[in-house]
C-alpha cells in the first residue's frame, strides 16, 4: 500500500491527517491547498540557467509556489532582452517573454569575479532544495558551479541539468540548437510532415525548448519525491535530444523492431488538412473510414463513398484534393466548422498570435490573462486543479532587485551559523526537509545505493483509463519510475495504438504486434472491462477505491455517462487524485469535440509556425499529445505534494490545448506586447542565421536523393568557425555577414553557397567537418535510426524488452538520467490484452466463479470482440 513520503523521516508517516503536525502547520497546509501561495510554498530553487528550457522549468515550479532565485551576471541573462522579431524592448523594460517566464522570481546579481558574490551564491545554494543548471551562461560556466562541484559541496540539492546531449558521453558538450536536435531526433521527417517535392520541415517556434522545460520540471519534482524518503539530493541529467525523440517521433524504434519496417517513409500532405476557406484558414482531419465517408457527404460528393476502397484514405483524399479545395474556398471558416462538427469530423481554425485569443473556446474558459507587470496578454496555466494548487501571476523581478536583501540576510545567517534566515526572511516559512538537514554531516547525505534508493513512485497505485498517446505517456512515466499502473481497455474497443501497426487482421494475435502500444505501456498491468455494462462499471468503482491516482483521457461526456466524475471518485476514495485530460477542457462550447493531436496543434499556434511562408502551414502531427502528457504529469506530482501536506485528494484538469497554448506562448506575447505577428519561416528561425536544411550527396536508405543536413549558426563566433571550415571563401568574408542582422538580410545568398558546398559531400562528412569546427550541425535521420546514435547508447536510453508474441525490441526510457537510479527502467513487457484480468479481479475481491461469469457475459475478455 502506498504511503506518502514525508519530511519527518525517510519512512512515511502513518498518522491520519488530523494528527500530522501542529494546528499552525495544518492551517498552513490548508492555505497551500487553497492556492494562496501555491502548493510548493517553502520549496526553494536556485536557477543557473538562462534559456527558455530552464526558465520554463522554473516557471512551472514558481506557479506552484516555489521560491525561484535567479543568479544573474551583472548584465543580466540574455533572455531579458530577447524577442523573436525585430521588436526591441524599451530601455529599462525587460522583454515580454522574460517577464512571462520569471514571474514571482527573485533576482540576485552574482559577479563571479568577486569572492563575496561566490560566497553569496554558495549560501543561496546551501539554503535551497534544488538548482536548475544549463551551460552557456554566467555564473553557470564557472567550474566552481558546475554540476559535479555543486553535488560535492551541496549533496542535499537536487541538481537538474538541461543540456543538448547530456553531461557525459561521446557527444557531450558538442554544439547544438533546438533546430539541429530536431534533425538528430528524426522528428523532422519521421511523421511525414510536408510536401515530398520540398525539403522536410521542422516544427516552428522552438517548441523543443519548451517541451524540455516541462520535462525538467517533472524530473525535478520526481527527485524531490524521492528525496522526501531518502533525505538526500541527486543529480538529474536531462538530455534535450531525448525529450525531442519522445515529443517529435512516435516510438519508431520499438515499432521498427517489432514489425521490421519503419512507421512512415515519405513525406505527404494530409487532406483536407490545413485548407483555405473563403475568409481564413481551417483545418479538418480525415483519418478514419467513417471520417472519409462523412467528408464525402459534407463536400457534396456522396458518390465517392462507393468508389474503389482499396487505396488508403490518404491516397483517396489526395486524389480528390482539387474538388475538396474548391469546396472549402467557397465556404467560410464558420460554415465549415459547423458542418464538420455536426459530422464529428475533427476541425479547428488555424490560429496564430493575432487571433488565437479570439477562439470561442478559449474565450469561454477565460484562458488568457494579462501580465501583472506590463499588461500584455499571456496564457493561463497549463492545467487547472480543484482545490487550486497554483498561485496567481506575479510580476517578474527587475535585474538585481533582491541582491541587497540576500546579501544582508546571508551575512546575518553567517553570524549565527545558519543560512535559514535567507529563506525565512522573504517567505516566512521553510521546507521541513531542508530544516531537518541543517547541521547534519554532509557525508551522511551522499546518495545511498542499492535498497536504500527506492524507485520514486514505488507503492503508488494508478488506474490508467487512457488511450493513444497523451494519457498513456503520462502514466507510462509513473510506471517506469516504480508506480503500479493498471491499464484498462475494452476487448470490444482496445487501446487505439494497438490498431495502427499495419498488421493484417488475419495474422495471429495481430493486436499484440504494435510497437507503439508496447513503447507506451511497459511495466503496466492490463485488464479489459466493458464499462457499458453494470458489471463493468462495478469493476471500475472497485478499482477507483483501490487506487491513489486515476487518469483518463476520454471526451468529458464518456466518463460522466459511466458515472465516474470527480464527485463519485471522491465518494469512493476521498484522497484520490483524479486527472482528466480532455482535449479542450471540461466546459466551453468545444468540450465534447474530438481532440486529435493535430487539432490541438491547429487551435494553439503550433501549426501556424510550421511550414513554408509561401504555402499553407502544415500540422506538426506529433507534439500535441506528448506535450499534454508531460504537463499532466507535472499536475499529478503537484497533487501528490498537496496530498502529502493535507491528506486530501485533487482534481487535475489537464486539457491538451491548455498545455499546447503554453508552449506557444511567445506568439501571443509578442503580438500583444509589440504588435508583431510571428509567422512560419520554413526551416529558418529567429535566433540563428543561417539556419536551414541543405541537401547532401548520395541517396538515402530508400534509394532517394533525399539526404539532408541541418545547420544553425547562433553566434558570430560560430559564423567565423563556419567560414574557416569552408576554407575562407570570398563570399563568406563580406562585411555584412559578420553580424546576425547582416546574415539574416543575406540569408538567400548564403543558402545558395551552402547548398552548393553541401551538394558534393555526404551528410556524414559535412557533420564531421562542421562539428569539429564548433558549428551546430546534424544529419536529418529517419527516426528508426535513433539507435545508431552513440550518445543514446552511452546513456542507455534504449533498453531491450522481450515479449511473448513479438521479437525482443529496444524501447525508449525517460529523457533524464537520475544518479539515484534506477539502472534499468523496463521491468516487464507491455500487457497482452486482458492479461491480468484474473489477478486484478481477485485482488478486488471477486471469486473464481464470479470471474468466470464476467468472462462468459463478455464483460472481460482477451481478444478484440472475443
* CA-based gyration radius: 27 Å
CATH topology of the domain at 39-248 and 389-437: Rossmann fold
Shape, per Cα inertia axes: globular
Spans of at least 5 consecutive residues with low confidence: 8-35, 416-429, 435-451
What is the CA–CA distance across the termini?
A: 34 Å
Strand order of the largest sheet: 3-2-1-4-5-6-24
CATH architecture of the domain at 39-248 and 389-437, please?
A: 3-Layer(aba) Sandwich
Biggest beta sheet attributes: 7 strands, mixed
Provide the structure class.
alpha/beta
Q: Taking all residues together, what is the mean pLDDT?
A: 91
State the CATH superfamily name of the domain at 39-248 and 389-437: Crotonobetainyl-coa:carnitine coa-transferase, domain 1
What is the level 1 CATH name of the domain at 39-248 and 389-437? Alpha Beta
How big a fraction of the residues is strand?
5-15%
* Number of strand segments: 24
Q: DSSP helix count?
A: 33
Considering DSSP H and I runs of 4 or more, what fraction of the residues is helical? 25-40%
